[in-house]
Design goal:
By secondary structure, the chain is of the alpha/beta class. Helices cover 37% and strands 18% of the residues. It has 13 helices and 11 strands. The structure holds alpha-D-ribofuranose and calcium ion (CA).
Length: 331
């Protein structure tokens, strides 16, 4: 977001007529990814979803690709192209999360078969070609899963880093510690080498870690608000989150499950409801027990240069009001 808009956003004077921001969503749907995609497609005045690139993560690539096609159909947007990206991490063996998301990755709903196939071009090559054809600062990357595709694009075409406006990535944990290991958050743990490439790339990077998503709890009262919309998208959101909440409710015993990936899109729409700090974040690659940990230097003790805007808090009521309003705009 341009500095002027950020300043106006901070003053609560967000200019709703601000230019539409072009985004590419890189994702491993995933119920929470699916809600993030719906929020983005419900915000056409602020966000132009150029394309979706799928990645192996919550479930294998063929399923994340199929889910991205189905969710865009659900939103009435079969025009949004889906490109299949990487089927495995840069170096490590794939890790999936069916224990959270179910076998399909979007258990809780049984969506209609996709109306069209994914694009033929590989998602990494699509990222490279599209960024090279764009103006510097024109496209924002919204990453909702392991960041393998973006890192591979940076390795294959280092020149694209100068073209990316910003990367906003649901990733990491520090104060909340890990969710897939005691120290690592899933999206980083699946491909820590890819995370390391990106945090060292110099690209403007905003991380949306568990430290903030754990403050956006999808309570049953909030889920009921999606059902009360009376549209198919609202019902699907409630049904998907009602399934995926089982894992977190059983683990944390909270009154609702944290809603991770939609925080990325909400940050683009209303940055003023989030709180963060520009700090140094490094990725642990060689820890016996800490591989994939995001070492977030919140108190600046390392004197290492700041490379990440690291979000730490969110106004949860404003967040869910935004989500319900945007899902309400869909079929
Ligand atoms: O740790 C939470 C992240 O892992 C979310 O993006 C969720 O969809 C899974 O990919
Ligand atoms: Ca995800």
């Amino acid at each position: 977001m341009r500095e002027r808009e950020r300043e106006r956003a901070k003053q609560g004077k967000t200019d709703r007529t601000m230019a539409t921001r072009k985004i590419i969503i890189d994702t491993d749907p995933g119920q929470d990814d699916s809600v993030a995609i719906l929020i983005a497609l419900g915000s056409p005045h602020e966000l132009e979803v150029v394309a979706i690139v799928s990645v192996a993560g919550n479930v294998p690539l063929w399923r994340t690709t199929e889910n991205a096609l189905k969710v865009t159909d659900l939103a009435g947007r079969p025009d949004v192209p889906v490109y299949a990206g990487c089927a495995r991490p840069m170096r490590r063996q794939p890790i999936t999360a069916e224990h959270v998301h179910g076998t399909t990755g979007i258990n809780g709903v049984d969506l209609a078969p996709a109306s069209r196939p994914a694009q033929d071009q590989h998602g990494v090559d699509f990222l490279i070609d599209t960024l090279r054809a764009s103006e510097p600062g024109e496209i924002t990357l919204c990453v909702l899963g392991p960041i393998t595709n973006v890192a591979m694009a940076m390795v294959k075409a280092p020149d694209i880093t100068g073209r990316i406006a910003e990367i906003v990535w649901m990733a990491g944990a520090y104060f909340e510690v890990g969710n897939i290991t005691p120290t690592a958050e899933f999206n980083v743990y699946v491909d820590p080498e890819a995370a390391d490439v990106v945090v060292k790339s110099g690209v403007k990077l905003t991380m949306v870690p568990l430290d903030v998503t754990h403050r956006a709890l999808a309570t049953h009262e909030r889920l009921d608000r999606f059902r009360a919309l009376g549209n198919r998208a609202g019902q699907a959101v409630a049904d998907m989150l009602n399934f995926s909440e089982r894992f977190d409710l059983g683990k944390y015993g909270w009154i609702g499950a944290p809603l991770h990936d939609p925080c990325v899109i909400a940050y683009l729409l209303q940055p003023e409801i989030f709180v963060g700090r520009h700090i140094n974040v490094e990725i642990e690659l060689a820890g016996t027990y800490t591989t994939g940990m995001t070492v977030a230097d919140w108190w600046g003790v390392s004197k290492r240069p700041a490379n990440v805007t690291y979000l730490r808090d969110v106004d949860a009521d404003a967040f869910f009001s935004l989500l319900v309003e945007r899902v309400g705009r869909l079929p």
